[in-house]
Amino acid sequence: MAGNKMAGKPNKSSQGETVIRIEAMHKWFGNFHALKNIDLTVKSGEKIVICGPSGSGKSTLIRCINRLEEHQKGVINVHGTDLTSDLKDIETIRSEVGMVFQSFNLFPHLTILENCVLAPIWVRKMPRKEAEEIAMQYLERVRIPEQALKYPGQLSGGQQQRVAIARALCMRPRIMLFDEPTSALDPEMIKEVLETMISLAEDGMTMIVVTHEMGFARKVANRVIFMDAGEIVEENDPETFFNKPKSKRTKLFLSQIL
Ligand code: ADP
Ligand code: MG
């Protein structure tokens, strides 16, 4: 178990190690082919931005990575573990892969602090006192320690999303997945959440971020992935992606959002 000294920093794997390997992966919902032949390798410390039109499969892809959804064909390997239907230790995968959703998903009847200590206590079996200390360090990190004893409904959307990030970090994940973390926020709150994410990126966290915040992509991403109709259509460094998109579909998408 990580000591308190480490609590302010993400759990870094050695740089360059492959942490996610997806090969020829397909997912169906009934007859609907939602993800088609996905190949994606993510190395430790990389920041990947995924964009694409609504319904293109972005959420489904990242939900498959922590097995909120099951894929039917191909390989998804997270930190050396293949995600298969006979996988016993799904909680280990989930605790290594933090997730932040568009809609915060905090428990409304629990205080901010209780939201943050729940999984460390019940999943990680951490003593309450240690869990609370770590939670407070992460709440300081997202700059809202003074909100610890309030309930989610008493906080602004931007504050709630920062709590959701702190809560995910309390499990000391090795990878963070973000699914449109700012798209439910008012414009004045988007910045504070993006700044929190940028600081996490600067600390070396491995991140996959579904977002249409192209300023964030330019600043932080090592690679930008464009999805359409369940496929990865194009993948490039941000400079090339924005200035010289290859496919017609990418160009059309960029012309609509930029
Ligand atoms: P995005 O996040 O890019 O908007 P999603 O991954 O949410 O797209 O969805 C991709 C496609 O899969 C959409 O057509 C959506 O309707 C469909 N889909 C997503 N979840 C389910 C589900 N649980 N059952 C059936 N179809 C789904
Ligand atoms: Mg989505």
From TrEMBL:
InterPro entries: AAA+_ATPase (IPR003593), ABC_ATPase_HisP-typ (IPR030679), ABC_transporter-like_ATP-bd (IPR003439), ABC_transporter-like_CS (IPR017871), MetN_ABC_transporter-like (IPR050086), P-loop_NTPase (IPR027417). It comes from the Bacteria. PROSITE patterns: ABC_TRANSPORTER_1, ABC_TRANSPORTER_2. The keyword Ribosomal protein does not apply. Pfam families: ABC_tran. One of its GO terms (molecular function) is ABC-type amino acid transporter activity. Keywords: ATP-binding, Hydrolase, Nucleotide-binding, Transport. Its EC number is 3.6.3.-. SMART domains: AAA (SM00382). Residues 20-254 form the ABC transporter domain. Gene3D superfamilies: P-loop containing nucleotide triphosphate hydrolases (3.40.50.300). Belongs to the ABC transporter superfamily. This is ABC transporter. It comes from Puniceispirillum marinum (strain IMCC1322). The lineage of its organism: Bacteria, Pseudomonadati, Pseudomonadota, Alphaproteobacteria, Candidatus Puniceispirillales.
